[in-house]
Amino acid sequence: MAIDRTVSLCKPFFYKTAASPSLARAICVAIVTICLLVASLPFMGIGNYILSQTGSYVCHIDLYSSSPKDRVFIIILGLIAVAVVTTMLTSNIVVFYLVWKLKKSVCRIFPLELNRNSRRKNNKCIAAKKEQQMAQFVASVSLIFLLTWLPLTVRLFCNYFEVLPNKTLDLVAMKIALSGFIANPFAYVLFRNIFKRTLKRSFSQIQTGIGNKINVKPQSNKIFHIKVSRIHRENSTVEPSKFVTDMQHAT
């Protein structure tokens, strides 16, 4: 997503002509294929998986093996992680700079506070604000990825170069990385503005409904008084006996 936003801002014409749902599907298939290929390397003799030291039936990478093939697997994972982290950081920095520059130039020409009735003039400023919101969303998801996977990346290189060996830190880093799998789906939902607006609208409707139920008062007395006043108005010129009879019927 970070690369997608960068290309769309740096090369808008190329992005508009080249980007398509089929290209997006092809990229997703390529990413999944690469992940499966790297994960299957231990089954081909490069690297090793071992059971977790906590006693649970969870396997993880063998970070302490002295075998050359196992160490090659560790450095492959470390280099992939560094490439992903570097790409995400660079892309997000470029996106935020371009969005800030776009918003500053457009909103200076068409300030949103002026000419609110002129929708045509404000379209570009609104588009810049939406682009900024999308950049913030991508940056939030990227930040969660960095916070959950960076500790494990650091520990991979620490074990490879035999610097600060500590099995407790390795275990904590792995658990933080696993928590990223849980946090990512929620991040895609919680950081979207449309979800925030929908959630706020739902709470507002619930509060309004509860308030209406509390403020409801019995209407029977009010209806009775209305009927009495209407009968009194209609029978203002009628004799009293007939007026009393009509009131009894109304009651």
Automatic annotation (TrEMBL):
Pfam families documented for this protein: 7tm_1
Topology in the lipid bilayer: Multi-pass membrane protein
Transmembrane segments: 26-51, 71-100, 134-152, 172-191
Gene Ontology annotations for the cellular component aspect, listed alphabetically: plasma membrane
Gene3D superfamilies noted in UniProt: Rhodopsin 7-helix transmembrane proteins (1.20.1070.10)
Ranges of residues in domain G-protein coupled receptors family 1 profile: 1-188
Gene Ontology terms describing biological process: adenylate cyclase-activating G protein-coupled receptor signaling pathway; positive regulation of cytosolic calcium ion concentration
Name of the protein in its database record: Prostacyclin receptor-like
